[in-house]
Amino acid sequence: MSFRTFVESRMPSLSKPYKPCWWLPTGHVQTAYCVMANFDAVDTVVYKRTLLRLPDGGTIGLDFTPVTPTRDQDETAPVIVVLHGLSGGSQESYVRSILATACAPESEGGLGARAVVVNFRGCCGVPLTSPQFYSAGHTDDIRSALLYISAKYPKAPLLGVGFSLGANVLTRYVGEEGVNSRLKAAAVLACPWDIVANSRQLEGRAFNREVYSRAMGGNLIALLKSHLPAIEKMDGSLLKQETPKALALKKPSLKEVDEHMVRVAGGSSPPFPFPTADAYYAWAGSHQKVPGIQIPFLAVNSIDDPIVAEIPYEACSQNPWVCLVTTEHGGHLGWFEGDLIGREGTPPHRWIKKPVLEWFAGVLDIVDQIGAGSGTDVGNPREVKDGFVVEIDHPFVGYRVIQSGMEITAGTAKLLKGL
Catalytic: 394? Predict the structure, then answer.
C-alpha cells in the first residue's frame, strides 16, 4: 500500500474540508477563543507526575494519565508522548482534547492508549533547578524523557504529538534521530517551522506585534517571575545576569524576551548562548530537519494561522514519510467546529482530534512493519553512570527519578492559555 493510499483509506476526516464554527470564521478569532474561552469543564484528564533530574541539574515533569486495569495488564498498549506549546503544560485544553479520547477504551471510541505529557523546564509547576530553560530548538530534554518512557514501557509503541513550540521540538527530534527515533510515529499541530519568518511576521506587523508577540512575551516574563527565588541562587549564570534586563522590559515582545532569556538559556552549550535572538531563530527552525524524518509523520497547519508565517510544502513533498495537511481556517491551535455551544453548555469541540486519532489508529495497525524493536531495543544505547541512566556518548541525555506518583498542581504564574 502506498503512503497516499494509507492516508486516504485510514483518515476519512480529510476527505472533506474542515468548516469552522460560523461565529469563529477567521484565524484571529479562532486563536483568541483558544485564549479567552473557559475549557475547565471539558475533556477532563487526571495526571500523576514524575519528576526527572537531568545530567546538567535541570528538571522536567512527566505527567502520566492513570492506568486502568485493562491497560495495566496490556504491556503493548500504545503510549502517546505529548509536547506542549510555548508556555503551556499538561492542563492546556488543546492537550486534553486529544488525550481525553485517545486514552478512552476502544469500546468507547478511544485508542485504549496511555499518555504522558512532557512538561518543559519551569512549566506547569515544574521547578527550575538549573540556569537553563527550554526553547524551540533544544531536543535533549525530549531525548531524556523518551529514554525513561521507553524503559518504563519496553513493549509499548511510543507515538509523539506536539503542539506549536512543542511541535517544532518534536519535528527537530525525529529529523535529527532518523531511524534511531524512539517514536514509532508522530503528529505535529500548528508547527511554526521557520522561526525567522515567524519573527518577521510577528514583529513586522503592528497588530501581530501588539497582540500576539506581546502576549507570548508576557507569558514568558510571568514564567520567569515565578522562578525568581531559584534564579537568585544561580550565582555566575548568564540567566541570573540577564534576568534583571528582561524584567525591566515594559510590555515586551516575544523577540525582546528571547534576546534576554531564550537565546542565552534555552539549551545546553554549545550551541547556547547565541549572540542574538535572530541567530537563535536561524538555528531553531524545524523546517531544516524535515529531510531526516524516517517515521510516519503527520503535520497539520492552518493557512490562516496568524502566528505561523510559512509552511514548508516543498521539503515535506520530497520526504515520503511525511503527510502535510493544511486547512483554510483554524487559527493557531483552534480548529473549532459545530454549534455555538456543545453539550451542557460546553465550548464547541475541536475538529483536529479526528485526523490525529485516525492517524494513530492507522499507524498502530501497521506498527510491526515500522522499524525494528521497541522500548530499550531502539534508539542509542544506554548505561548507568553516576546514578543516572544516560545515553552513551550523549552527556546531556539521561535521567534520575527524584519524585513520582504525586498529583500535579498548577503553576503559580499568571499565564494566558492556548498559546
Answer: no
